[in-house]
């Protein structure tokens, strides 16, 4: 199976990095999360309810919708914060990227560990610009807001293609497809990583962060 | 593979499409209320959450949607449309968006109804949630208040995009293939206002009293910035109840099977819900002529004759902003107490015959007969509206209350503190302000600008001259209660605006006044010898003081 790959690019001011990344990541995860599965007898299951909430950005004229799950929001904010700090400390051109990868676990026989097979990867490339005047910043607020609107439309367009999604799993397989560790929602298994790059695109500092709920440790 | 849909699947599909249409309308209207929406996730499935999404049902909106659908479903050539428009306090209106739920003939016979179609419809609703925050009308709707409100209208039939002006853009939210056709959800939105709106409203002088009151005197101090929708309770409080979706006596209890899809179990249970409201059955039988709608609406919207309200059809545009204190018997008003505790008093608007700026109207409105007819009739709009503004709870107030009710998200100040200045042209707030207004706005006309003489200069040239045309008591027009953002009367006796006005024309320095200066000079000279004598007496003290300094 081929892994679907989507790339988005944004140019933002330093203080807008967090909100821009959260907006994109939350929008993708909104589409890639379901309610909690409750398995019943005879191989049937029912699905919980996903709530949503609007989030206004402070530094961008933009509002995005995210899943109502504090745990998920905290996890994303943590990794986005690390990315922002890495960008700031890199001292480079202010180029970096974050990757949100959805994967499935495939059981392997002992002694091999489970294989993680990605089926969709979203890459967001960030270019941080420095602005001098307040007027420029005000224009940047609006422009970045408009750009993010375009990105959301791009994301929704990809989602509407209804391309490959993992098959709904049985109860024993659910942790190979979904992240069942959250209390109120159930996103597909995902991991987020980021890289700080220089102008040539090569990785100057590679920092990998994994957010995996390993319910089945080897 | 089945090529024909069995009856159970067909029934399920029809139900899915019906509730999808209702939920679509809810999402769109709620996104234009001007507030942030927040619903909770629930790990335990409840029977009422269609498509596994927590989307509240505003009863009035469901009622109107069902009335528009009249028991039909979107089909080829019959689309369900939600039109979002903007109406200014002067009575001018403009279409902003049309959301279309359409069906085309392209069928996907092999798709499983109760599993794949259901999940894809759920995904489409999530996409709709995201896209509704992204079109230009969203930011406009978040700023609605004194100057304008956002209205919605639901109609069924052919899509009419004429009102969007030239160069409108479309965005496709998504498609879902079904065995009977492909459902498409898209939005066509006006763009020629978007640029003006976002810039204009941020710089519009607050003398108009727009939503700068956001942070002043929130009427419900306990409410958090995010308001969970709770309109059902409010509707009951107001004495009018609408049948909620559950009253159709069908709930969705879905069970999915992980065995081969052909064994999908989908149960629909009939259950009564707590709200024992009467089921409105007559709406389903009202024949709806899709095409006739728009013209009726245009004329009714623009003429505002109270008689139109009694027609009882779904023609009128409904304020997305919920009004309070309205006549409970009127079925078209959304009976939700908003953020204010009571009915807002009427604005003291000067009655203006709306001398429509033809050029402006032509650019803003399409060359549609109904809309252009607004020009002569809009004058009577404002007349009717203003004249009826004195009354409070009479039915004639209904329309007036529609667009004056919303004063901004967190305000409980009476609207009559706001005065609209004399702008006669339609969509006046979108027009560049004339110099007079700009002068009065401290934000636009900062101190020291060329238009204003500095206080220092003013005092040198003449006594008590005012600095240019700005200032408080010397204004040619009245500015009442300029409230900059983040200002609270309770905490500070003087806010930024008052401070600025007061100190814009300070009294001249006495030492700089020539006459007084001349007088004091003479006095000084006379008193010099006395002062010298006193100082000589205290010579020793002075010397001691000097020594301490060394």
From TrEMBL, chain A:
Presence of the UniProt keyword Ion transport in the record: no
GO BP, one annotated term: negative regulation of cell population proliferation
Keyword Cell membrane among UniProt keywords: no
InterPro entries in the record: ATG101
Keywords: Autophagy
GO CC term, one of those recorded: Atg1/ULK1 kinase complex
GO-annotated molecular function: identical protein binding; protein kinase binding; protein-containing complex binding
Signal peptide from the UniProt entry: none
Localization of this protein: Preautophagosomal structure
Family: Belongs to the ATG101 family.
Protein name listed in UniProt: Autophagy-related protein 101
UniProtKB/TrEMBL annotation, chain B:
Record's signal peptide: none
Annotated spans, Disordered: 339-358, 365-394, 438-472
An example Gene Ontology biological process: negative regulation of cell population proliferation
Pfam families referenced in this protein's UniProt entry, alphabetically: ATG13
Cytoplasm found in the keyword field: yes
Keywords recorded for this protein, A-Z: Autophagy, Cytoplasm
Top-rank taxon: Eukaryota
Domain annotation Autophagy-related protein 13 N-terminal: ranges: 90-195
Biased composition (Polar residues): 375-391
Nucleotide-binding keyword on record: no
MF terms in GO: protein kinase binding; protein serine/threonine kinase activator activity
Cellular compartments annotated: Cytoplasm, Cytosol; Preautophagosomal structure
GO CC terms: Atg1/ULK1 kinase complex; cytosol; mitochondrion; phagophore assembly site membrane
Main location: cytoplasm
Family: Belongs to the ATG13 family. Metazoan subfamily.
Function of the protein: Autophagy factor required for autophagosome formation and mitophagy. Target of the TOR kinase signaling pathway that regulates autophagy through the control of the phosphorylation status of ATG13 and ULK1, and the regulation of the ATG13-ULK1-RB1CC1 complex. Through its regulation of ULK1 activity, plays a role in the regulation of the kinase activity of mTORC1 and cell proliferation.
Name this polypeptide is given: Autophagy-related protein 13
Native species: Carlito syrichta
